[in-house]
Write a structure and sequence with these properties.
- The complex is a heterodimer of chains A (about 240) and B (about 60).
- Chain A is mainly alpha-helical.
- Chain A starts with 16 loop residues before the first helix and ends with a helix.
- Helices cover about 40% and strands about 0% of the residues of chain B.
- Classes of the chains: A mainly alpha (about 240), B mainly alpha (about 60).
Chain lengths: ~240, ~60
């Protein structure tokens, strides 16, 4: 038999709409990166860490809601403060989920770019994707290093970075927004490279044909010159 | 071990996740049929931590063409 739940009276604590709005925004940034990272994974594997961070985020929201409903009291803080801190901590976990997923995605994209361009010569890549060496390649390198550094720093301070996020949700969301743009840029670079594959194949084929033609022409000229020299030499050495 | 009342676990921390190893994945595979969530997780298509970190380090250290 289902146990009937008796609800305690609601408290007067109200979570500001901005806190909810920030949480919704950051959660969906993390979710969209996670979904894309799943698509990009070369082995179609999943990475558990971002999902675990989302689970911890949910835990903080449930705790805050329990305090709002009067079901429980905050740890050592006044209830209203505890609720807001819990929201900030939830945002902190969403932030970690975002960077775990972003790191996973950037690694997968880098691998895809590597595998796509590997069969082609530098000359071919330079001719077809003209801004690859001056712009795109350094950009991909920089983005991967930046995201990896954030994830690395996050690992070092694993248990203190969430507390550091308390009261700084606005900064957190601004940082996420910046990196979201960077990830979008990385994805568009990858798409551009994928779209260039037919041109890369075409260039290689044409170049191979012209190389072959050049080789045949060279052989013909070489043999003609040799024949003429031999003929002249024979003429010169012929006895009168 | 007794199942606690839901009110008693409200402020209890969830258990920390242990490292995902190949052994854990193989064990989870035996229970996969009973799991109704993500298809990748139920079929144990999951990166073991160590392998993920190795692959990540290798890809990041390989220069782009």
């Amino acid at each position: 038999m289902r146990q009937k739940m008796t609800m305690p009276p609601h408290t007067e604590i109200v979570v500001p709409d901005e806190s909810w709005a920030r949480l919704v925004e950051i959660h969906n940034h993390a979710k969209s990166i996670f979904l894309l990272a799943e698509e990009f994974d070369s082995r179609s594997n999943d990475f558990i860490q971002p999902a675990m961070e989302l689970r911890h985020g949910l835990e903080h929201i449930v705790r805050a809601q329990a305090v709002i409903l009067g079901i429980s009291d905050g740890d050592d803080e006044p209830n209203a403060q505890y609720v807001l801190h819990s929201f900030d901590k939830a945002i902190g976990h969403e932030y970690r989920a975002f960077f775990d997923a972003a790191d996973w995605l950037s690694v997968s994209i880098r691998q895809r770019i590597n595998e796509t361009l590997e069969p082609y010569s530098h000359e071919c890549i330079e001719a077809v994707i003209t801004d690859y060496y001056p712009t795109l390649r350094p950009r991909v390198d920089r983005i991967c290093v930046e995201i990896a550094a954030i994830r690395g720093a996050k690992d070092v301070v694993r248990n203190t970075d969430i507390d550091a996020k308390v009261g700084k949700s606005e900064e957190t969301i601004a940082e996420i927004g910046t990196y979201r743009k960077i990830i979008d840029e990385l994805v568009s670079i990858s798409e551009r490279i994928q779209c260039s594959v037919p041109s890369l194949v075409d260039w290689t084929r044409k170049n191979r044909r012209s190389t072959f033609k050049g080789w045949i022409l060279g052989a013909l000229i070489g043999s003609t010159v040799t024949a003429i020299i031999t003929w002249v030499f024979r003429l010169g050495s012929a006895k009168p | 071990m007794k199942l606690k009342d839901w009110r008693d676990v409200l402020m209890t921390d969830l258990p920390e996740m242990s490292p995902v190893t190949q052994e854990v994945i193989d064990l989870a595979r035996t229970q996969g049929r009973r799991y109704r969530g993500s298809m990748r997780i139920s079929t144990c298509r999951v990166w073991p931590d160590e392998e993920y970190e190795k692959r990540r380090a290798k890809i990041l250290s390989t220069p782009l063409p």
